[in-house]
């Protein structure tokens, strides 16, 4: 069980390490200050939230109305039964580390800082969405995602404070100083400096960008550094709700658009108060391509070093039928070969970013299948699709190339003249924003999406999930 009598709820025996406890207790007011300045802007009395009370398989969370500013952010690591050995890399077979080995200190710290940086960034990106929530149910889900991203920040800050000394404490401060989209001090990764100005973007973000989180956390869960592995394991449990919000949110947008297309026998649901299917496709193109950039380059010596050192494994590492060392293996990765889209052979270790990205892409396809089933069931011939992996990329083999969503290399001029057909235009964004009118009455829903099939924790859709201030 998690101890909620402590100032910082935790299951890491914080009380037995007074120095660490004091250091984290002095970071806590700065976190709360950041939350009040950069967290959800909409004032509320309370929200129906889940709070982790245990890390076990059964009944790990409790639901209830909580004043958001009083949410009990804490430090929760998955319990480990027995002894764990390192599953991959040069240290394969050795016992997992409970401390950070000196030779890997800076790489490990860098990975933890990058992971930590994304968590508050997403809260900042979503800060103003409460003002335009399509229902109280959706508003509650937004706040649930936000408080848990705040908790994920706590997870990384605990590691920085507990294992990286002075440098770690400085990095924990910097996590509250960088801001999403700031010109002077931006967040580290590209996607976390983009805006999330409307709920279609929010659903796309929680579908595509949170899913990068799932895959990156999955690789860090394999880490030889056991405290990182254990914290990521528990974070993944919370993360699955965030992706549920994205998946079902987009289901409901597509469902409503399809309904109106059939009802009015038109391709364009825009004039009928919904998001046109073409605009959904453009938002999808944008969020997918920006999220692909989060996997880094197809050829990366960084990832080879992380893997060999045991810092970052592969997705489902232990289920792979190979030697888990990969020094003698090769792999094919995407590349531009003489200006054409092709593949090139590299050492398997250097190609591991693409290995992870391939698993992510296969997972993204499942959403597209769901949305296409909704269109098919409505009797519509139109379909959504993931754009080609090279489309609109800023990182890796296709950065700077001009590749259409269908996967053709085109001239820059052709790409630019099609930009508005492939990515959201100002007109599209203005239309989407015009639909974003808040609906705060229990049981009611905005015009542009269908209600959810089920409520939260067995409650009905018309439950008062949020009491506004
Ligand atoms: N933007 O060798 P390369 C989540 C940098 S999301 C800006 O190609 P590498 C969440 C890179 O840092 C998951 N810079 O790539 C979701 C490197 O810089 P240095 C977050 C970028 O290092 C929603 C240089 O370019 N967690 O949890 O193999 C809501 C060359 O890099 C970008 C992680 O990402 C970019 N997109 O892989 C809330 C896990 N891409 O070192 C939360 C930790 C690359 O030369 N991070 N660069 O100065 C990592 O594992 C790796 O750092 C990356 C990059 C996968 C991000």
Question: Could you describe the 3D structure shown?
Answer:
- The protein is mainly alpha-helical.
- Helices cover 46% and strands 7% of the residues.
- It contains 11 helices and 5 strands.
- The radius of gyration is 23 Å and the shape is globular.
- The mean pLDDT is 96.
- Benzoyl coenzyme A is lined by residues 111, 114-115, 118-119, 122, 149, 189-190, 209-210, 212-213, 216, 293-297, 300, 302-303, 312, 353, 395.
What's the SSE blueprint?
Blueprint: H1 18-38, E1 44-52, E2 61-66, H2 105-125, H3 136-163, H4 165-177, H5 199-220, H6 226-263, H7 277-292, H8 301-309, E3 330-337, E4 340-347, H9 352-377, H10 412-422, H11 426-435, E5 466-468
Antiparallel strand pairs: 1-2, 1-5, 3-4
Bound molecules: benzoyl coenzyme A.
Number of strands: 5
Helical residues, percent: 40-55%
Structural class of the helices, strands and pairings?
Answer: mainly alpha
Form type: globular
Name the ligand types: benzoyl coenzyme A
Please count the helical segments: 11
Please give the radius of gyration in angstroms: 23 Å
Mean pLDDT: 96
Order of helices and strands: HEEHHHHHHHEEHHHE
Order of strands, widest sheet? 2-1-5
Largest sheet: 3 strands, antiparallel
Low-confidence residue ranges: none
- Termini separation: 33 Å
Strand content: 5-15%
